[in-house]
Amino acid sequence: APSLPDDVLESLRMLGTGAITKLFATYDARWWPTDRRPIRIVGSHELRQAVDMTELTGVPTLCWFATGDAARAIETMSEHEQCVLVDRISNECGLATWDA
Question: What is the DSSP letter of 43?
Fold first, then answer.
């Protein structure tokens, strides 16, 4: 209080944001490097980054991020398709073979 002037509120509404989506994947065991946060996924146009959420969730969990057209496409995928995508990206970037 007081509220912002109408022209400022309209400007803020017009800014908008880009599309972003998050995929939370849980695992039986932590297999990714634990010494770096976030894990940047180089070369992937679908998933750009993963953040270790294990300490917050209590189970081995990565939160994968996608933006733009990739985010919109991922949001239309089935859960199975999303799991296949995460597995593929993990293998392509070498995370799946990391010796934790």
Answer: T
As a dihedral over the C-alpha atoms of residue 16, residue 82, residue 91, residue 41, rounded to 10 degrees, the angle is 10
Question: At a CB cut-off of 8 Å and minimum separation 6, what does 35 contact?
Answer: none
Tens digit of each residue's pLDDT (9 = 90 or more) over 30-50: 888 777 666 776 667 888 888
Residues 6+ apart with CB under 8 A from 44: 89, 92, 93
Taking alpha carbons only, the member of 28, 29, 21 closest to residue 47 is 21
What six digits make up the tokens of 70? 């990739």
CA gap 85, 70 in Å, rounded? 11
pTM, 2 dp: 0.71
Tens of pLDDT, residue by residue over 10-20, are: 877 777 667 88
Residue 98 near residue 41, CB atoms below 8 Å: no
Q: Is 62 exposed, middle or buried (0-12, 13-18, 19+ CB in 10 A)?
A: buried
